[in-house]
Design a protein that fits this description.
Strand content: under 5%
GO molecular function: G protein-coupled receptor activity; olfactory receptor activity
Shape: globular
Main location: membrane
Helix content: over 70%
Number of domains: 1
Order of helices and strands: HHHHHHHH
Number of helices: 8
CATH class: Mainly Alpha
CATH superfamily: Rhodopsin 7-helix transmembrane proteins
InterPro entries: GPCR_Rhodpsn, GPCR_Rhodpsn_7TM, Olfact_rcpt, Olfactory_GPCR
Domain G-protein coupled receptors family 1 profile: 1-187
Keywords: Cell membrane, G-protein coupled receptor, Membrane, Olfaction, Receptor, Sensory transduction, Transducer, Transmembrane, Transmembrane helix
Structural class: mainly alpha
Largest sheet: none
Number of strands: 0
Distance between the termini: 42 Å
């Protein structure tokens, strides 16, 4: 659960850069976003997530459990594991979590900066059709970014309790299931064939 989120953050950042180049520098898109550069972006995303995942897993293996090691969670997340581990300094865990948070925040800032330039360029477009097309390209990606970060933030900043609670399990399920469930739906809705089929279905329902 550490490898995949961190890798996805990197991929979402690469996608925002792709849209930045396509909208702000369309004439240079072919030269900048070459096949080699795209492969490099994906490799960096997966390797960064993999490195953080290995560091986190190694830190977890060093933990000792004084009592029950049963976790009342949907997956083995950091707060849940630390609750059942022995009360001691977790330097390795703190370092791995700090690196993960720093990596995610830097990617989020990069995404936001990219969209500041993108919206600035879009608003300067004279054609309404061009602006509409640019926004339709960016909105699905922004929805995916929003669902990913908002569910993650909601899961990690919720009030903690000493006793296992249903709300903790619910938040962890939402964080794990919501982004991968809605991502394909969000992107598929841009497909004209799917839009046409959906409109026909809605007309039949009415």
């Amino acid at each position: 659960m550490v490898l995949l989120p961190e890798s996805e953050v990197g991929i979402l950042t690469a996608m925002s850069y792709d849209r930045y180049v396509a909208i702000c520098h369309p004439l240079h898109y072919g030269a900048v976003m070459s096949k080699r550069f795209c492969v490099l972006l994906m490799a960096v995303s997966w390797l960064s997530g993999g490195a953080l995942g290995i560091l986190f897993s190694a830190a977890m293996l060093s933990l000792e459990f004084c009592g029950s090691n049963r976790i009342h969670q949907f997956f083995c997340d950091v707060p849940a594991i630390l609750e059942v581990s022995c009360p001691e300094e977790h330097a390795a865990i703190n370092v791995s979590v700090a690196l993960g948070v720093l990596y995610s925040l830097s990617c989020l800032v990069s995404i936001l900066v990219s969209y500041v330039f993108i919206f600035s360029s879009v608003l300067k477009m004279p054609s309404r059709e061009s602006r509409s097309k640019a926004f339709s390209t960016c909105v699905p990606h922004l929805m995916v970014v929003g669902s990913f970060f908002l569910t993650g933030i909601a899961d990690y900043v919720k009030p903690t309790s000493n006793e296992p609670a249903l709300i903790d399990l619910l938040f962890s399920i939402i964080y794990s299931v919501t982004p991968p469930f809605f991502n394909p739906i969000i992107y598929c809705l841009r497909n004209r064939d799917i839009q046409s089929a959906l409109n026909k279905f809605l007309r039949k329902v009415k």
